[in-house]
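Request: Give me one sample?
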Amino acid sequence: MANLYITEQNSILRKTGDRLIVQKNDATILDVQCHKIDAVLIFGNVQFTTQAVNELLEHDIELAILSRTGRLKGQLTPPAPKNIALRIMQFQRYHDDEFRLKLSKEILKGKFLSGIHMLTMFLTNHPNLKFGDELGGLKKALVAIESADSIEQLFGIEGSAAKSYYHAYGMMFLKEFEFPGRVKRPPTDPINALLSLTYTMIFNEISSLLDGLGFDPFLGYFHHPNYGRESLGADLIEEFRSPIGDKLTLNLVNKGILKADDFYKNPKGGVYLKRESLKRYFSEYEKFLNREFQRSGETVTFRKAFRLQAQNMAKVISEDKPYIPFGTD
C-alpha cells in the first residue's frame, strides 16, 4: 500500500461507499479504494468532510495535515491498543545514563556508516572526484564515538562529521544546482529544500509508526526531550538520512527529474517546490520508499525497514537486546 498526497488547493476530500474521492469545482480528480491507502497527507488549503474522516478512522488510516511547504500541523490517528508495558520500560530506560549513551553510540554508528557508504558508492562511478579528507573525517568520527563518555560529546562528534559529509555531498551534484552546505529553517536553495522536505516526510512516517506500536514518540535517548519534538523519531531517522533523504535528492537532481524552474522563492523567506512539481516529487518519493532490495537475506522496502527498526528498538528497550542500526547488519 502507499500514502495518498493531496496538494490540489481548494479541493475537498469526500467519501463514497468504501472509496475516497477528491473533488474540485464539482469535478472528481481522484477516486481510490480505502484498502489501498496507508495514510492521507493533505497540503495547504484542502478541505475534508466528517464522513471522509470517519471512513479513514474505520480503515485505520491516519490523516496528516501539513502546510503547503510540508510542515506538519497535526494529525488524526485511529485509536489503537497502547503498549503500556513498553512505555513504562521506555521511561525507565531514559533514566539509565549508561543505556542512553550505549544506544546513542549505535545510532551515530549507523548514521556515519550510511554516510561512508553513500560517498564510497558514488566514487565507484565517479573516480575523478576525491573524497579522501571527507571519508577520513567520517572514519575518525566512528573511532571517536567509542571513547565518548557523554551524549554531549557525541553531539560534538556528530557536528564535525556532518561538516565532512556535506562538503563531499555538495560535490556530488552534476547538474545546474550548487549546494552551499546544510541550511534548515528556512531552506535557502533547491537542494536544501529537497533535503528538508524528504527528512520531514521520513520523520513523520517514523514518528507515526512509533506511536502506533505503543512508544511515546516524544521521549528519545540520543535527542533530549524538547517541548513539541518527537525525539524518538529524531533518533530513528538518523540512520535513514543518507540512504533515503540524500540519495533521493541526488537522484532527482542528477537525473534531471527536478530542475531550477520547479522551485520558487517565498517572499517571507525560503525556497520551495512549486505545487505541480510537488506532485512529481511525491511520485518519486513513493517509488523510492517502495523499491525492493535485499537486507540480511530478506526482501524489504524502506517502509518495511522503518517498521523493522522500530521493532528492533522495542526489543532493545524491553529485552535488553543490542540495537543494530539499518545498513550495519
About this structure: The two ends are 26 Å apart (CA to CA). The longest strand covers residues 27-33. The chain is about 50% helix and 15% strand. The chain has a mean pLDDT of 85.
